[in-house]
Amino acid sequence: MLGFFPLLAVLAGVFGYVLAPQIASLKSTIVPLLMLIMLCMGLTLKASDFVALRSLKRAFAIGVGLQFLVMPLLGFGIALLFAMPPELQVGMILVGSVAGGTASNVMTFLARGNVALSVAMTTTSTLFSIALTPLWLSLLSDQSISIPASQIFTSLINIILIPIAVGLVLGRVLGDRVKTIESYLALFAMMVILTIIAIVVSLNAGEFVVIDWTVIFAPLLHNVIGLTLGFTAARYMGLASAEQRTIALEVGMQNSGLAAALAIKFFTPASALPAAFFSVWLNVTGALFAQIATRSYNLERKTSE
Predict the structure, then answer these.
(1) Among 178, 186, 168, which Cα is nearest to 37's?
(2) Cβ distance 168 to 42 under 8 Å?
(3) List of residues 6+ apart from 268 with CB closer than 8 A
């Protein structure tokens, strides 16, 4: 299903536009659905997922550093470059300052990357985002936009920290029985993102006739630069090719579902548009990157034989 996700994302947007009044009524379900995703993440986490950090501290530092030091500034810079209004600037900053998305773990697997490192980075950056996302919003957002940083911080604890903690406890209680549902969790996460895209589009249905092209392509530029920076930095630091692919995907693929949810909850529906388009683009570029990486991996294997 992952290969069809870009098409499904477009269809979700069309669905949200055509049935705008009905889909918009689902606005209140976004946060509970994201909490379920975080609970599922907690269910599947194991201590062994973090063992990779002991031998790959440098890779972890590069990836998380780029994600929280460069990507927020990049989102802000692109918004300024395209002269976006304040509410869309907030949307771009949100996209840049949230953690990596769970889709990066799947793409890392397809790209023959280091999955253990990917999972560890996604989980750790998700926890870091509780403090860093509201901090970056406060530092970078236009002064005309009120940033309820403490409320966002509290909301992120409820959306991220508590569900993951509950999932960890349930995972320990259920043990190996969790494995029977693991294959369905990625599918569930995709369905949630599709639902969020449809809701964001439905809430902005009246604006689409006058939507600016920059709202569509600014998130693409942010995503492509993130992938490129992650790969280039990891390569420059002499990391193995598997880690290069992993860091590229972790840096370039942000948790756009969370960004959209925060935009709708604390700002305006229009602020969620960059995240909605980012959701589409990251799966297109991620799939293309995985295909190129797989070919490179196969070529490396043939060369070494």
Answers:
(1) 186
(2) yes
(3) 87
Which residues, listed in sequence order, are joined to residue 254 by a DSSP beta bridge?
Answer: 100
Q: What length does the chain have?
A: 305
- Point out which residues pair with 168 in neighbouring strands: none
Closest CA to 247 of 221, 226, 263: 226
SS3 100: strand
Between the alpha carbon of residue 43 and those of residues 220, 271, 279, the distances in Å are: 32, 31, 24
Phi, psi of 100 (to 5 degrees): -65, 150
**Greater model confidence, 145 or 183:** 145
Please name the residues in contact with 2: beta carbons below 8 A apart, sequence gap of 6 or more. 106, 110, 186, 190, 283, 287
pLDDT digits (tens, 9 = 90+) for 114-159: 877 887 888 888 888 889 999 999 999 887 778 888 888 888 888 8
The CATH number of domain 2-300 is 3.40.50.2000: no
For 188-243, what is each residue's pLDDT tens digit? 777 887 888 788 888 877 766 667 788 889 999 999 999 999 999 999 988 888 88
Q: Taking each helix axis as running N to C, give the angle between helix 179-203 and helix 256-266, from 0 to 180 degrees, rounded to the nearest 10.
A: 40
Tell whether the model's pLDDT for residue 284 goes beyond 70: yes
Q: How far apart are CA 100 and CA 249, in angstroms?
A: 9
Point out which residues pair with 100 in neighbouring strands: 254
pTM (2 d.p.): 0.81
Nearest Cα neighbor of 91 from 296, 229, 278 is 278
What is the C-alpha separation between 12 and 10, in angstroms, rounded?
A: 5
**SS3 label, residue 269:** helix
Query: Cβ atoms within 10 A of the Cβ of 242, count?
Result: 20
Q: Reply yes or no on whether the pLDDT at 9 is more than 60.
A: yes
